[in-house]
Amino acid sequence: MERTRRLFFALDFSTPENAQAKAEIIRLKHTLSPLGQPVPNDNLHLTLAFLGNVSQQDYLALCRAADKIDASAFSLRTASLGYFNKPQILWLGIHPSDELQRLAETINTLSRAVLNIDKGDTPNTPNFLPHISLLRQVEPGAIDTISDAYKEGESSSLTVQRFGLYQSAPHPTHKGVQYTCLNTWPLSIAKPTPKSDFPSYSLKDDHEL
C-alpha cells in the first residue's frame, strides 16, 4: 500500500518581521491557557488549504503547481476571538483581506485540480474563515467567561511574505501533533520576476516517503 502524509498549505509567522506580533499572540494564548490545552508556539499557523492524506507523487505535483503561483506580499491584522464548538477550539480571527482570500482561493483551486477533488468535497473552501488556533479542548461556553477586553484583543500586524506546505504527524512524545514544513514559496515584494518554465525546489532526503 502506498504511503501517504497528512498535508496542508498554511502561513506561519516565525519570520523575523513577525517576531513582535507572534510574541503578542503567544502572550494572549498564555493568558487564556487556563481554559484549555494551548497550541504549542511552533504550531501557530493560519491554514490556507487542508489536503488530507497525500501520496508522494501528488506531493510533487502540488509543489510544481505551487511554483507557478505569482502573488505579492501583503499584511494582515488579527481580530477578535472565536470558538469552534465541535473541535472545541478557541481561535484568534483575522480581519478581512482580499489578498489573503485570493491566495487561499488560488491554492484551493490548484489543490483540487492536482488531487482530483470536487469543490463540494472541500468544505473549507467556500466558507474560508482565516484564523489562528490558540487552545484546544476548550469546553463549550468557556468563551463567555472571557472579558470583553480579551475577546476583542489588541490587533497585531502580521507580514505575509511566503506560504508553505506542511505535514501533520503525531508528535514523537505521543503528545499532540507536530507540524513540519516541507516546502515554502516566497511572495513577491517588488516587481514580480518571470518564473522559469521548469522551476526548482529542494526536496530533503528525510522528506521522501
Report on the structure:
The protein contains 4 helices and 9 strands. The longest helix has 18 residues, at 98-115. The two termini are 12 Å apart. By secondary structure, the protein is α+β, with helices and mostly antiparallel strands. Helices cover 23% and strands 33% of the residues. The strands form 2 sheets. The chain has a 5-stranded antiparallel sheet with strand order 2-6-5-4-7. A 4-stranded antiparallel sheet has the order 3-1-8-9, covered by helices on one side. A hairpin with a 6-residue loop joins strand 8 and strand 9 (177-186). Helix 2 packs across helix 3 (98-115).
TL;DR?
The chain is of the alpha+beta class and 209 residues long.
Largest sheet: 5 strands, antiparallel
Provide the spatial order of strands within the biggest beta sheet: 2-6-5-4-7
Helix content: 10-25%
Number of helices: 4
Query: Radius of gyration from the CA trace?
Result: 18 Å
User: Unreliable stretches, pLDDT < 50, 5 or more residues?
Assistant: 121-126, 190-209
Strand content: 25-35%
Mean pLDDT across all residues, rounded? Answer: 85
* First-residue to last-residue Cα separation: 12 Å
| Shape call | globular
Task: Considering the chains and any ligands shown, give keywords for the structure.
single chain, 4 helices, 209 residues, five-stranded antiparallel sheet, alpha+beta, globular, 33% strand, disordered C terminus, four-stranded antiparallel sheet
